[in-house]
Design goal:
The complex is a heterodimer of chains A (180) and B (300). With 180 residues, chain A is mostly helical. Chain A has six helices and three strands, in the order βαβαααααβ. By secondary structure, chain B is an alpha/beta fold. The chains are: A mainly alpha (180), B alpha/beta (300).
Chain lengths: 180, 300
């Protein structure tokens, strides 16, 4: 576990972010950041960013709601509630069935969480593609979802090319060390 | 019907489900899971009523309807806290921490002899103790009440056996007399003893105290131990600030001075502790995880 002690600017470290868009924004902010004295410890884990996690959670729930509302002609508020439960149900079902099957099939030890994330995202992408082709308001939601995926893919390519610079900037961060 | 026990509120099924959730839910699904399960656990009548009654004393003049929603906030924080604890045990991923009362923490760290940490059922006691054991060179003995359900107890012990830090030892507060001697020995060896001092479990000696103007009982053991071993008591609280964010609050040490009047010395120290406890609970009522009325007056 890598940690940063006493420097609040560590919150901008790309390693604390999961999706490439957020990594890239974090990198840009980190470049302009100065060390900020702070009495605490920050952990470097890709799911540590609160802003990113909550934004993605809300965005996915609303997107899922939009696709459901259009597909089943139900009110959007009800569809968002169903989406909130549905995403969890898919993740659970995937954890029980798909992740063990996947690991048995490819003889790997892929973390179930990773397999489940791919399953949920794939289903939402399929729903977005379907919605994007329908002549309803949901096509805007569908295109929005697909554009964000494309944007994330572009950001991932940029992050890949910047990986050495990012690693260098992060390792120069004041207070960086490892803990057990 | 013993298979049914595992689905009761203290049953092992919920621990296994929690572990499944931590291992399987992507981070951006966690919030949805917490929101849903906190709502489901509001159906747990005794727990909900216990928290609502405690809130009515902590926040005088608060309405029942507001306290119902506040109870949801308590359950929400509890769900995140226990999930953070399992995540740390399974993946060694800790939350971010900030510290208040560093001067007292340094004092605790640099002491030659042992000390007692007195804390409450707030934030993540387990996570706090584990983290302390990871970042500190000191040995820590954590005293906790055992799980009431035997199957849950076995499950937790097995999980702890797999994941515990070397410098952290857990002892259970059921075997009061043996444990007291063990703890005295540990503290004299220079170890740090962490005890929860806001709730009395059956079989544990207690001392009358007032909390938020209501009569209650607080554990006498930590104060007796401090007096016998001549070590200070450090009030320490783990406060959850948000997703993967905690605060470690260390208060001014409480000295239990040996005098001829043992009861008076106890009363003074417990008074200091209950004032400290009240201050922290009042500002962080949404994470005082006491699901039974803390005072007989509230139970009526």
């Amino acid at each position: 576990m890598r940690i940063v002690r006493g420097n609040a600017a560590a919150r901008f470290m790309p390693s604390r972010h999961n999706f490439a868009i957020f990594k890239l924004v974090a990198y840009l902010r980190l470049r302009g950041a100065r060390p900020e004295t702070w009495n605490g410890i920050m952990v470097l884990d890709r799911h540590q960013s609160n802003v990113e996690t909550w934004l993605v959670t809300i965005w996915l729930t609303v997107m899922g709601g939009c696709f459901l509302a259009a597909a089943f002609a139900i009110p959007l508020t009800l569809a968002v509630a169903v989406s909130l439960l549905g995403i969890q149900a898919v993740a659970v079902a995937s954890g029980v069935v798909i992740a063990p099957l996947w690991n048995a099939f490819v003889r790997s030890e892929t973390a179930p969480m990773k397999v489940n994330a791919i399953v949920v995202m794939s289903l939402l992408t399929a729903a977005a593609m379907y919605s994007a082709t329908r002549p309803t308001w949901a096509r805007f939601a569908g295109w929005h979802f697909l554009s964000m995926l494309a944007l994330n893919a572009i950001a991932a390519a940029i992050v890949f090319f910047l990986r050495d610079g990012i690693a260098q900037l992060e390792s120069s961060m004041e207070g960086l060390s490892s803990a057990r | 019907m013993s298979w049914f026990r595992r689905f009761l509120v203290h049953g092992v099924f919920w621990r296994q489900l929690l572990r499944f959730g931590v291992l399987n839910m992507p981070s951006w699904v966690e919030g949805m899971v917490m929101a849903t399960w906190s709502l489901i656990f509001l159906l747990w009548g005794p727990g909900r009523r216990g928290v609502m009654r405690n809130l009515s004393a902590i926040l005088p003049g608060s309405s029942a309807i507001a306290n119902f929603f506040r109870t949801y906030a308590v359950f929400w924080n509890f769900a995140w806290t226990i999930a953070d604890n399992v995540r740390f045990k399974e993946f060694r991923v800790a939350p971010d921490w900030d510290f208040i009362g560093t001067e007292y923490f340094d004092q605790l760290e640099s002491r030659d002899g042992g000390a007692i940490i007195l804390t409450a059922h707030m934030g993540s006691y387990d996570l706090g103790a584990h983290l302390f054991a990871e970042i500190s060179k000191r040995h820590i003995v954590m005293v906790r009440a055992p799980e009431t359900d035997p199957e849950t107890r076995r499950y937790e012990e097995e999980l702890h056996g797999r994941t515990a830090a070397e410098s952290l030892k857990i002892d259970f507060s059921t075997r009061a007399s043996d444990l007291a001697l063990d703890l005295l020995e540990s503290v004299r060896r220079g170890e740090i003893i962490a005890i929860q001092g806001d709730r009395v479990t059956p079989g544990i000696s207690s001392f009358p105290a007032k909390l938020f103007g209501k009569q209650t009982e607080l554990p006498a053991g930590p104060f007796a131990l401090a007096m016998a071993a001549r070590v200070p008591i450090f009030p320490l609280f783990i406060v959850r600030l948000g997703r993967r964010r905690y605060r470690l609050v260390v208060g001014k040490p409480i000295e239990v001075v040996r005098t001829r009047d043992r009861a008076e010395a106890f009363e003074r120290a417990i008074g200091e502790w209950s004032r400290e406890l009240e201050g922290v609970i009042r500002s962080s009522w949404f994470q005082w995880f006491t699901f039974e009325p803390y005072s007989p007056e509230l139970a009526r």
